[in-house]
Amino acid sequence: MKETLKYLAGIAGPSGYGSKSTAEQVTQHSLFSQLPSPLTAIITGATSGIGAETARVLAKRGVRIIIPARNLKKAAKVKEIIQKECPKAEIILLEIDLSSFASIQRFCTDFLSLGLPLHILINNAGKYSQKLEFSEDKIEMSFATNYLGHFLLTEMLLGKMVETASETGIQGRIVNVSSVIHNWVKRDNFCFNKMLNPKSYNGTLAYAQTKLANILHAKELSRQLKARKANVTINSVHPGVVKTGIIRDHKGFITDSLYFMASKLLKSTSQGAATTCYVALSRQVAEVSGRYFADCNESRCSALASDEIEARNLWNKTRALIHRRLVQL
Fold first, then answer.
1. How far apart are CA 96 and CA 105, in angstroms?
2. CA distance 35 to 119
3. pLDDT digits (tens, 9 = 90+) for 170-222
4. What are 43's strand-pairing partners?
5. Taking Cα atoms as reference points, which of 245, 266, 244, 263 lies closest to residue 255?
6. pTM over 0.90
7. Coil, strand, or helix at residue 114?
């Protein structure tokens, strides 16, 4: 009850920010604001919603933005809007389908061929499917897009991030956009093979499982980066409940009256992007890694999401699966 009241009132936490803080507010005093050359950030899911707002605000702070997109026309529209506000913003559009291993490989090849550094990777894109769908790799669509796609993307770009951090002395940052809905997943239901190819399907549970997997991914990769003494951090964030396309997809099982009441608790897009932007740019989270943030402050995730053994097991199974599939391509 106390946390709910704090959220509704927008009371600031230890960071000085809270649920009502906007992305622009939390990036006014960025750790990287005085650098002689621009940072480079890749932001998935930046053609709408909090991804587009994240791209806009980071561009406003002088960051070079790479937008991977399945729909390049939508991406071009976002680029146009950002450059109207920030004419000097450098925005590069590249094609990707995060549900496809082959497409992710092509994107990474295309990006790396540009010869750019990579300082920030924001794994923001999210897919919610009410009905059971499968990717071209024959994997349940939400799991393929939200978790496996971002896992592979991170793996293929991690070398460039570690290299950039080593050469420039600028800390690399990876942000996994998760959700508080990860708390809905019980340990008995969290089975890797069932997530790949479920025999029965619940769209909300499938989505929640991917968001749990995003946190576990951040936890295990953080451990590995610390062991390597790499100057790269990875954290996961809950953006809050934002009125985006994901919410519209959920309306099939939310009554109009409940949706109206829930809408009073929704964040604006700029408030929803705040925690992502805070973790990506704030000097206050330098050296912080493997943590979970909500409302621009460290927060508690579920016991399952905090389980280091579970995180390592999921990592190993994911790595093995992707290796097998990539060998077949």
1. 9
2. 12
3. 999 999 999 999 999 999 989 999 999 999 999 999 999 999 999 999 999 99
4. 122
5. 263
6. yes
7. coil
**Residues found in the chain:** 329
- pLDDT at site 1: 46
**What tokens appear for 30 in the block?**
């960025």
Name the residues annotated as catalytic: 201
Q: What is the sign, positive or negative, of the torsion defined by CA atoms of 118, 122, 123, 129?
A: negative
Amino acid identity at 61: R
84 Cβ contact list (under 8 Å, min separation 6): none
What pLDDT, on a 0 to 100 scale, did the predictor assign at position 12?
A: 84
Q: Are 304 and 215 in contact (CB under 8 A)?
A: no
Q: Where are the beta strands (DSSP E) in the chain?
A: 40-43, 64-69, 91-95, 120-123, 172-177, 232-238, 292-294, 297-298
Give the residue among 139, 110, 101, 144 at the shortest CA–CA distance from 42: 110
State how far the Cα of 40 lies from the Cα of 85, in Å rounded to an integer. Answer: 19
Tell which residue, 17, 67, 77, 20, has the closest CA to residue 46.
67
State residue 229 phi and psi, 5-degree precision. 60, 35
Distance separating alpha carbons of residues 251 and 55, to the nearest angstrom: 27
pLDDT under 70 in the chain at which residues? 1-10, 31, 33-36, 243-265, 327-329
Tokens of 312: 């390592």
